Amino acid sequence: MQGRCGWLWSGIVAVRRQWIDEHKINVLVQFGLDKHPDLPNVPSVLDYAKTDEQKQILRLVLVRQPLGRPFFAPPGIPADRAEALCKAFMATMADPRFLAAAQKAKLEINTLSGADVAAVVNGGFTSASPTAVAKTKDILSRAMDQSPPRAKGPGLARLCDHGPSSAGQISKSGQKWLRKKSSYL
User: Fold this and answer.
1) 171 vs 152: CA distance, rounded Å
2) How many domains does the chain have?
3) Is residue 76 part of a domain?
4) Is it the case that residue 173 has pLDDT exceeding 70?
5) What mean pLDDT value characterizes the chain?
6) Per the domain annotation, does 3 fall within a domain?
7) Which residues contact 39 (CB under 8 A, 6 or more apart)?
């Protein structure tokens, strides 16, 4: 038995489709504002919130999920240019050849317009109470304090060294972090 958290459903479908087909995995919970259409019977983490404040906190944490990889333009862009870019982007996202290429590459395309992105961001942050915002900041701050050491590269966890001599042993910085944080484990 093995567990994994934080792997995108689209990644599993693209890379490990046989796990789904052979029933080798069980998805226990979804982390997102909305359930994925492929997983209608898998509960959302929001389903487990017992209070409105807990739902607000979860929404604040999850608000970035539907955004994926947004595209931005610089501040002060002329309105007509912004409109042309948005229109061209949305046309590309609906282009049959683009969608066929994405499907062939096993890439999931879920497009949000600029107005939809603004609605998600504004709705996620303006609907939460000041208390929920403060608690979310505190929770995230504590979580960052408890996260394992990072390598000098872009966001690579350095709990284990995986070089030829270490064969997956816990690094010295990882051992230090584990000792320091053992009360949280």
Assistant:
1) 14
2) 2
3) no
4) no
5) 78
6) yes
7) 9, 27, 30
Would 106 be classed as within a structural domain? Answer: no
What would the pLDDT profile of 33-66 be if each residue is shown by its tens digit? 889 899 999 999 999 999 999 999 998 888 877 7
Domain enclosing residue 18, as ranges: 1-48
Tally of CB atoms within 10 A around 77: 12
Give this prediction's pTM.
Answer: 0.62
Percentage of residues in the chain having pLDDT higher than 90: 25
Residue range 15-37: average pLDDT? Answer: 88
